[in-house]
Specification:
42% strand; 264 residues; alpha+beta; globular; eight-stranded mixed barrel
Amino acid sequence: MPFPLYLVDAFIDQPFSGNPAGVCLLPEEQAAQWMQQVAMEMNQAETAFVWPKADGSYGLRWFTPQVEVDLCGHATLAAAHALWQEANEQGSIIHFHTRSGVLSAKRIEGEIQLDFPCDQPKTRELPPELLTYLGKPPVWFGRGRDDLLLVLESAAEVENFIPDLQLINAITERGLIITAPGDTGSGLDMVSRFFAPKVGIVEDPVTGSAHCLLAVYWGYRLGKKLLRARQASSRGGLLTLELQGERVLLSGKTKTMLKGDFYG
């Protein structure tokens, strides 16, 4: 039995930007081992698996080529896009049941907006090997639920950062976010990059879940609830972030790049 399968670019700002995600639409939930094998076949940072539930909502799980993850922003954006653009979903809001609770998506002025839980940053002692690698203390260092957060002085430092993947693999549980303020006049509040070699992602093009942590850090530091962010990977991507209590709204644009059927 073939399953509809799409490749969707999420958080795009121009053609061939943003983060590609596989989206596999299922009639019902499949075995985790099968979904992991499909994700390996797709070989994208994440592949989302979506199936309808009796109440009109959807089940949603995310897999990298190596592991299942608890939360993925760009693949959720891609999943919502596929349901609206390719599967004729008529609801104005889509609710997903996930390992991180119920998440929602809605369409706003040409973008899709996700409602995700905030990730509170907590100060941590800087590993001495990371200090040696940096050559100077960072502006701030801490962590959220899954990822370490390293704050640098300038956007240029983020853009020019050369990761030591062996070091990152040794000090992280999932990944390392590096970030700095946006340049004056750029219209950006922050820039960032994300590295997660431990789960098979050398550098993620755009990481929605990382911005649940970044939104809280920069929101408090800048005294703002509405933020504009760019992930400065080679593909690049733009996000609009809005803090609402214990939730963060992440918005971005999407585009279907490939569509077909998966026979597996």
